[in-house]
Amino acid sequence: xxxxxxxxxxxxxxxxxxxxxxxxxxxxxxxxxxxxxxxxxxxxxxxxxxxxxxxxxxxxxxxxxxxxxxxxxxxxxxxxxxxxxxxxxxxxxxxxxxxxxxxxxxxxxxxxxxxxxxxxxxxxxxxxxxxxxxxxxxxxxxxxxxxxxxxxxxxxxxxxxxxxxxxxxxxxxxxxxxxxxxxxxxxxxxxxxxxxxxxxxxxxxxxxxxxxxxxxxxxxxxxxxxxxxxxxxxxxxxxxxxxxxxxxxxxxxxxxxxxxxxxxxxxxxxxxxxxxxxxxxxxxxxxxxxxxxxxxxxxxxxxxxxxxxxxxxxxxxxxxxxxxxxxxxxxxxxxxxxxxxxxxxxxxxxxxxxxxxxxxxxxxxxxxxxxxxxxxxxxxxxxxxxxxxxxxxxxxxxxxxxxxxxxxxxxxxxxxxxxxxxxxxxx
Amino acid sequence: xxxxxxxxxxxxxxxxxxxxxxxxxxxxxxxxxxxxxxxxxxxxxxxxxxxxxxxxxxxxxxxxxxxxxxxxxxxxxxxxxxxxxxxxxxxxxxxxxxxxxxxxxxxxxxxxxxxxxxxxxxxxxxxxxxxxxxxxxxxxxxxxxxxxxxxxxxxxxxxxxxxxxxxxxxxxxxxxxxxxxxxxxxxxxxxx
Lengths: 427, 192
Ligand code: HEM
Ligand code: FES
Description:
- The complex is a heterodimer.
- Chain A has helices at residues 14-22, 25-33, 49-68, 78-87, 92-120, 128-150, 155-168, 175-183, 190-218, 240-265, 295-302, 313-334, 346-368, 375-400, 410-415, 419-426, and strands at 38-40, 237-239.
- By secondary structure, chain A is mainly alpha-helical.
- Chain A has a two-stranded antiparallel ribbon with strand order 1-2.
- In chain A, helix 5 packs antiparallel against helix 6.
- Chain A is globular, with a radius of gyration of 24 Å.
- By secondary structure, chain B is of the alpha+beta class.
- Chain B folds into two domains: 2-49; 58-191, Rieske Iron-sulfur Protein, CATH 2.102.10.10.
- Chain B has helices spanning 10-17, 24-49, 55-58, 92-100; strands spanning 63-66, 75-80, 83-89, 123-127, 150-154, 159-162, 167-169, 181-183, 188-191.
- In chain B, the strands form three sheets. In chain B, strands 1-9-8 form a three-stranded antiparallel sheet, with no helix packed on it. Chain B has a three-stranded antiparallel sheet with strand order 2-3-4, with no helix packed on it. In chain B, strands 5-6-7 form a three-stranded antiparallel sheet, with no helix packed on it.
- The radius of gyration of chain B is 31 Å and the shape is elongated.
- The N and C termini of chain B lie far apart (81 Å).
- Chain A binds chain B through residues 159, 162-167, 169, 180-182, 184-187, 189, 191, 195, 281-284, 286-288, 301-302, 304-305, 307, 312-314, 317, 370-372, 376, and chain B through 51-54, 57, 77, 79, 81-84, 107, 128-129, 132-138, 154-158, 169-173.
- The complex binds protoporphyrin IX containing FE and FE2/S2 (inorganic) cluster (FES).
- FE2/S2 (inorganic) cluster (FES) binds next to loops of chain B.
């Protein structure tokens, strides 16, 4: 669906017309990211991150396919083949750094994209499906990145694999057999490395499929916008191309500038030096931490140190860690306020900036810190707030809050007045 | 009867068959879809089962170890099924500490005697695999952190084990596992 005033595709040259009559792919592209997609005129830079995430996915697939031409997924040689890529393969060092830092860049972009959704209420009706597909993509990304990090078969790779598959061991009854089945052994070894490689290769293409569903669902109501007010008329929108292709192009330039700065000047800043030590099943590094993008969730995992009624501490940590993301699936129904944007929600805004964001910052910090006091206690408090925020505070705020007055339309929000609003008022 | 148009008179056939009870066509439908469904599920079996440990990984193995050089208070790390095993010669004081604990107060109640072999109570042989998420705890090596209870300390998420390698503090649910082993002589243990 699109708005009635959307531009219609009219092929300019006969070849395109010939193709379009037989396979309407040109039309599809035109309506999805071309002049045929009308977009609210007031999008700010937070709306750049979707396109950037798409760019990162392509970046990871291209660099990944190339790395896979030189990498060998066998426990005996995996570490050496990674070093071979770094030292012997032409441009290998750059491709590997591009892929490793590309994963970090991907998560930065996706976290900002999710943050945009949280603040502007993008998950609300009629875009629930867009949001749900987004959470699925995020879960798949986490699985992909985790398995990718195992591939170089360094110390962090090995112990990361051990600890994360150990999470499944916490499930009552089936936990241990499940863990052994996942690993194909009692500890990570060749079987695990091989299957992780196979899945690490596959999952990005699954992600690409879900991205298509995500965008399909988005294009039914069209993009939301910073006011959260739905599009009312033609004056509220502008065509995606050339306006947002230009804005996204500028954003991509800024992104590439920062990404290349990391890639060429600080390629190991986000990595862990222990991963340049070959995997050693006999000795755990003194301080094992996951990649930075997992820190908040790792902090939640470690926050549970004592049994919780009849649930053992180990299981509780695992439930909470998965629950902290699964709760996002319910967000459209937990936040029942009819007003989308945080701009017009004074109480929501307070809890957002002074509650959720600090709690996430604390979790992020503690996830990278050693499992000692005061970090454990800080994680516990932040974890408690995190769940309270989604499960209790959001529903209550939605029912007691008095939102600020909304503009009549996007046009009014931008220009200060909307002719349609006056017409409407007069009639 | 209609003219021969090359298409079957589907409605007529269905009407003729649907006198009472089950139509023959329903039976064929259910049988066909049922058989295809069962077949489909059965083909999942090899796909699921191929992920389980292969025969070479499952092959029984054992490790023999001469413990004569391990002094009281010392421990070594051996390898059993590609995983570390801690072999520890407890001092009299460590044994006393382990026995002084009220077993009922433990998360995974076991006495030191239950975790060692008769006649070899000073030999504490356990897997070096934290029961939380599988890291190798510290405390077997010279000068390593033994944790608050003088046994082992897992640095990954802070689990403390006592001198009988029983879980005392932190997220791990169980004591360090005691593998199957026997003393084949006074100084040789066979693990597995
Ligand atoms: C969602 C997209 C992807 C993400 C988030 C991702 C993430 C990662 C990460 C974090 C690493 C470890 C980097 C390191 O420390 O060296 C890695 C390694 C690797 N990835 Fe990916 N990856 C993605 C897509 C792909 C694709 C599509 C392929 C192949 C078709 C691929 C092939 C590889 C290979 C061969 C390695 C091992 C070499 C190395 O360690 O650099 N990746 N990936
Ligand atoms: S693995 Fe030992 S405390 Fe988590």
